[in-house]
């Protein structure tokens, strides 16, 4: 690992000062190569799927690439390449009474380590967002996606060489050995940030063992609260979408809370709709389960305060929605639910870097420090104060 | 500790939605009470100083309060009370093509734990910055300042009661037992952020044992590099100021690097000046020592690149300055030194929340995540995305 750390850190010094045009050209070249090599990528992905005997349908869905998903990845790449450059942005500043000019300037973090599972598109999204933000990165994907990831990482290397950037700017750790992951998350001085994306076990392992600062992408235990004033037809459509459109996603709804006053009338209609879509209803859950499947928990609550208390107690601080026609209840929900994304009258499924205008995401932070919610290129930066003096002393 | 955690968390729910006028009134009331009770505060501080037999002169200096320092604290309080309110600031947002309005809104973190040593003004600065940012806080000061801190914390409590805020909004842990500190830094779910300010042992203990996210305020190993084109008279004045004006401060210079071409002419003048101020010169140091006293290390370097490499290797990422008349060297230094604050032709002593316009500081972050450099009220916030929909599904 020491050799990898020094390679990546040398590359990071070059990335830090690489012109934006070069970084953008690299990102666009990745998209071109993905289009050119679609057959090769899908063949590697087919091998991974064929090997995925023990995975759940949700995990196989996450693992799967196809022409549509590759086109989506290329659209993300174009979106990332055409974003404003975060590097060098002047965030603010002022002139001290003594005449010194103090500027706060956005700069890359340096080296970012990203640990993830299953979804091979993460390899490309993260490489591109790190290039956009001037960071080098070490990617450690899941062993179930190893063939897909190796093929995609080779494409990234080719694109880096094409524009004259060092290949060490994006390194894939293709050794599934967990001890190497441990070395990665404890490499203080060699790695500036670790982003774990994945199941509870992975997050737990990383947060308990890391010495490098972590921004975690924890589970998504998302709620929808149906207030007594909610529009039934729209509510049913939103809940169905939030559960059924991609149950394996972390922004899918897991628990529906329903105001007691409408339970008798609303729930039969909701259940009929969900059962048609193959959804299993659980009404006596432990409220802490992330199903990631066509299963949803339903609980009747006395009022909006009980709903907010339930969400703040059992939720994961990811995405929660209220469905209501009552203005004050909408405002209370937005103010009092302590989550990264709070919605009124919309599906929780929108919590996503692409949907939020970030091009793609390096993860969805469920913590409050550094970044919260979908993380894009800006979230992979820090800042420094540059002070222009003329002999000032204090 | 469980009782403290629940008291503080209940207070945090109130603080989160407390009007800015109430929070500002509490901050101004603290200043009024400090002025009214100066005799009582200085008597308590005298007791601490009398007990401080084993402390170094630098530590006693940090511990000491006097009329001038109390007046400075009151000026900080007024500055904090008259700052723009960070809570509720709309950081940005856009309307999704489907019509949803997505706003990024600044919100308090919740509960902040601050662990510090010696300087009793930290008690007031941190309480005020937490009130400014809508956070409740748990303060754990050093046992050497316990009498000063208890008196100051009682004043904060009185101010909170005066404006109708819960006393649990600012809690002083007055038990020096280290096991309570351990409980504090591992209280995931009860505490949102830990800020340690202090010596290396404290920082090491906290970063190695914390489960709650940490923004560390590490040592300040600050450098001044004297380039070959530097103005001698101004350079000597800046170096003298950076070492002598308050050697116990973390922004004091510890190592001076001098370009080889001017060493023979510049160093004798510098040494003469520093010796007059009682400064000891060390030329064969291990380069990693934070003296915090009237001692400075001096090293001759071949050129600016060697200076930058030295700083990035031995520095603590705090504050580093170049003294030069060469424009390109100034820019290279600003771009390539990877520290929170980089200066041209000014003393490192300006790295300070008050000097940077933050009113005061809750610490000076030497890490890149969340906040870097002097931390004020804005650094004690996170954000959430509020999404206003009208039935949107994905």
Note the topology.
Two copies of one chain form a homodimer.
Chain A: H1 2-17, H2 20-36, H3 38-51, H4 57-63, H5 67-81, E1 90-95, E2 101-108, E3 111-115, H6 121-132, E4 136-140, H7 146-163, E5 170-172, H8 178-185, E6 193-196, H9 200-209, E7 222-226, H10 232-244, E8 253-259, H11 260-276, E9 280-282, E10 295-301, H12 304-314, E11 319-323, H13 327-336, E12 341-346, E13 363-365, E14 373-375, E15 381-392
Parallel strand pairs in A: 3-4, 3-6, 4-5, 7-8, 7-11, 8-10, 9-10, 11-12
Antiparallel strand pairs in A: 1-2, 2-15, 13-14
Helix pairs in contact in A: 2-5, 2-6, 2-7, 3-7, 5-6, 6-7, 10-11
What is the overall silhouette of chain A?
A: globular
Give the quaternary arrangement of the chains: homodimer
Distance linking N and C termini of chain A: 45 Å
Q: In total, how many beta strands of chain A? A: 15
Order of helices and strands of chain A: HHHHHEEEHEHEHEHEHEHEEHEHEEEE
Low-confidence stretches of chain A: none
Description:
Two copies of one chain form a homodimer. With 394 residues, chain A is an alpha/beta fold. The mean pLDDT of chain A is 95. The relative contact order of chain A is 0.14. Chain A has helices at residues 2-17, 20-36, 38-51, 57-63, 67-81, 121-132, 146-163, 178-185, 200-209, 232-244, 260-276, 304-314, 327-336, and strands at 90-95, 101-108, 111-115, 136-140, 170-172, 193-196, 222-226, 253-259, 280-282, 295-301, 319-323, 341-346, 363-365, 373-375, 381-392. The two termini of chain A are 45 Å apart. In chain A, strand 7, helix 10 (232-244) and strand 8 form a beta-alpha-beta unit. In chain A, the strands form four sheets. A six-stranded parallel sheet of chain A has the order 9-10-8-7-11-12, sandwiched between helices. A four-stranded parallel sheet of chain A has the order 5-4-3-6, with helices on both faces. The first copy, chain A, has a three-stranded antiparallel sheet with strand order 1-2-15, with no helix packed on it. Chain A is built from 13 helices and 15 strands. At the A-B interface, helix 10, helix 13, strand 12 and strand 15 of A face helix 10, helix 13, strand 12 and strand 15 of B.
């Amino acid at each position: 690992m020491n050799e990898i750390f020094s390679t990546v850190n040398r590359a990071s010094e070059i990335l830090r000062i690489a012109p934006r045009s070069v970084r953008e050209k690299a990102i666009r070249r990745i998209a071109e190569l993905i289009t050119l090599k679609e057959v090769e990528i899908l063949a590697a992905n087919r091998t991974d799927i064929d090997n995925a005997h023990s995975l759940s349908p949700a995990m196989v869905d996450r693992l799967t690439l196809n022409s549509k998903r590759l086109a989506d990845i290329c659209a993300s790449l174009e979106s990332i390449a055409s974003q404003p450059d975060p590097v060098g942005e002047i965030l603010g500043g002022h002139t001290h009474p003594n005449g010194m000019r103090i500027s706060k300037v956005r700069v890359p973090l340096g080296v970012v380590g990203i640990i993830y599972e299953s979804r091979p598109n993460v390899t490309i999204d993260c490489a591109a967002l790190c290039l956009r933000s001037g960071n080098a990165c070490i990617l450690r994907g899941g062993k179930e996606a190893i063939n897909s990831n190796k093929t995609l990482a080779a494409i990234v290397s080719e694109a880096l060489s094409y524009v004259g950037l060092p290949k060490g700017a994006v390194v894939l750790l293709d050794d599934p050995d967990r001890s190497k992951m441990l070395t990665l998350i404890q490499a203080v001085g060699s790695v500036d940030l670790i982003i774990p994306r994945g199941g509870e076990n992975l997050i737990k392992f990383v947060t308990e063992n890391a010495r490098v600062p972590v921004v975690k992408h924890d589970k998504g235990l998302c709620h929808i609260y149906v207030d007594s004033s909610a529009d039934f037809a729209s509510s049913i459509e939103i809940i169905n979408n939030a559960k059924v459109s991609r149950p394996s996603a972390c922004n899918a709804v897991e628990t529906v809370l329903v105001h007691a006053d409408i339970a008798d009338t609303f729930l039969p209609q909701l259940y009929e709709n969900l059962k048609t879509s193959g959804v299993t209803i659980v009404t006596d859950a432990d409220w802490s389960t992330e199903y990631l499947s066509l299963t949803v928990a339903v609980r009747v609550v006395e009022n909006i305060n009980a709903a907010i208390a339930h969400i703040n107690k059992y939720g994961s601080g990811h995405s929660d929605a209220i469905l209501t026609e009552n203005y004050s209840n909408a405002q209370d929900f937005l103010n009092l639910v302590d989550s990264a994304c709070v919605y009124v009258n919309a599906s929780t499924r929108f919590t996503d870097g692409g949907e939020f205008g970030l091009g793609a995401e390096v993860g969805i932070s469920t913590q409050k420090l550094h970044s919260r919610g979908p993380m894009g290129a800006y979230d992979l930066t820090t800042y420094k104060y540059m002070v222009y003096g003329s002999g000032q002393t204090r």
